[in-house]
Write a structure and sequence with these properties.
Structural class: mainly alpha
Keywords: Membrane, Transmembrane, Transmembrane helix
Number of domains: 1
Organism: Sphaerisporangium rufum
Number of helices: 4
Largest sheet: none
Protein name: DUF4396 domain-containing protein
Distance between the termini: 14 Å
InterPro entries: DUF4396
Radius of gyration: 17 Å
Helix content: 55-70%
Domain DUF4396: 21-153
Length: 164
Amino acid sequence: MDHGGHHAPAGHAGQAHQPTSWRMAAQATLHCLTGCAIGEVLGMVIGTTAGLHNAATVVLSIALAFVFGYALTMRGVLRAGVGMRAALKVALAADTVSIAIMEILDNTVMVAVPGAMDAGLGDVLFWGALAGSLLVAFLLTTPVNRWMISRGRGHAVVHQYHHG
């Protein structure tokens, strides 16, 4: 992903906040959503195929979303020459809030859409609800990420590693 033009804003408590563009926030959200979507879709597919209870499917999807979300961030940070332990700390700081919000939103949509969790993999309801849930997660998490980046939090902590 192109992170050209990103600068990690200085934004700790009591410091002036840096303006953060919607484009930057959307890119950060899309980056996070990529890992979340891989885990979410994989979890829903595994749970549906295995005939797991809806609650177990949701838990599996959430767990895999965090694993893949952190893994994608760590991949870039590790490429910048950071050690495994430090890369994990960066991923946790960069993505935890964003992934948590996305997972609350997309799983709420999946559970709220009548029949979506019980639809089969060949059913347009399953895939439509899943795609819609990810869109809702993206749209509602982007403003949160914009706010966090403007304060030097969230995805802002990983920006320095994209230029290494």
